[in-house]
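Example (one chain per record):
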Amino acid sequence: MQDMQRNMWLVAISVIVVIVLINNSVYYLVTKKTLEDSFKEELLTHAERLQISLEQSREGSEQFQNQIGRELRSASIAIQYALDPDVEKVTTEQLIELRDKLDLSHITLLKKLPDDIVLYKSSNVNQLNTSTKSWVPWYEVFSQLFENKNASVDWLGQSLPNFWSGPFEVSTTDVDKLNKWGYYYDGATNYIIDPYVDYERQEEYEIATGVHRMIESSIKSSDSLLEIAYINPETFPDGEMTINTNGDEQGHKVQEPIFYGSYEIKSEQDTEMVRKAYFSKKTVTHRERINGKEIFKMYIPTFVNEKGINITDRDGQPMNSFVLMLTSDYHVIQEKLDSQFLNVGIIILIVTICSLLIAVIVMRYYRHSRDKVVRVTQETYVDEINQMFQSIRAQRHDFLNHVQTIHSLAELGKSEELISYTKELTGDIRLMNDIINIGNPAIAALVRSKISQAESNKIQFSCSFTGLNMQEMGVKTLDVNRMLGNLIDNAFDEVLKYAEYSRHVTLVGKQSGSALEFTITNTCENAEGAVVMPIFEAGYSTKQQDHQGLGLSIVKSIAKQYKGEVYVAAEPAGKLTFVVKIP
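Predicted structure:
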């Protein structure tokens, strides 16, 4: 027997060890994924900050550019007042003098010819006699202004009365410089006034307040982030180049493939990944060894509001989306993961040892508790049986007294008293026999205690049981006693409200082949009303004082636990019946 118990213990401990190892393995894998997800989440956090920074920078930069545009318009009006309305009478010296006074880069005057519009006079000699017929969409703007129309083209720019200004762009006559031009014409002259400034002011503003600072800050604050690039997905990786009238290759700032950040760590997969992120509108990741380093790249498609950003596609159409590329050193990430995994391994080892110790302690406690329960149950059973035998011995001891009393009453002819006396005597004996025949000592003990309680409270408590079998009930005796105890107490509480002659409680228990059924009926003047009350809900009680309203709720939960049912019904003559059925 001891060997069998020992083997059972070994099997139980082995099962626990296997469960702990499986649990810890799953925990390790889940933790690994969590750490990797955390790293990606960190990159996404950087991306979100950078996206917000770009949007703020874009809005601020747009306002700053618009202010420069308004200043160029004001300068144009000042130039108009200072010059002769006929372009032929304007000298280069005048343009140079006005340029210096108004703090402009240069001033150019555009003249309309029968089939072209040319840069006719300028403080910049490199622009003289340059045709604009191939400039898209500038030539269309010039034509609209000469027709006294406000410029309206599908291109990034600022339109004001008699004035239009495009974004900072590369000059056709000087491909190495960025300028912002303004064009003014109100019909008072025979030329368009074109003042412009270089990118220096705008660049200083963006460096001080814009995305450049956020990029630098993000890279410095991260120990793995190497590079950040804002990518124009339509022109990446080479940009869009055209041949200008001088025969030189000319790019456009608004079509640059990288419009913020840097792109030094290059992969052959970058173009494909950028396209994939852009068209799928989903974040894409790529891991590759580049220049001896394990590199992790994240490509994040980003969409801004309807105003868009200062970039265009290959056809010159404004765009409102871009791809943010974050490049990280995965070796740093791997070191973090290894460190985390080491800590996790130590934790798993400690948890495993503690789990085994706890399992051994719990098993010992369980065995001890089980033995204690068995011992207590046996003691209770013996005590109850002894009490029953004691009651039987008491009845046998009093038997002679009962016989003598019956004989005396018979001799005296006291027939009514004799009948009453024998009725009480046989009722007591029958009640004891009924308790003995219950078949379950624990239930018999409960009923016996409730009979004593009923006698002390002058409650007429009757009970009968049929076919109860402790081995075949299919329900724990403890649960049966909990249900019966709560139902009997509930009935006693109710009948104590009434006079002694109305205190009636009846308990009937029977067990058939398919169900175990208990019925408790008690006096209740408001039986119809009690049936519709939520009496089985936890906390509901019609009683006062210390009642918590849990008794009937406990009965219902136990019955439900065994897939049984409990219900209440109103009987005639002011009776209330509770029925518990357990299959």
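Caption: The chain has 13 helices and 20 strands.
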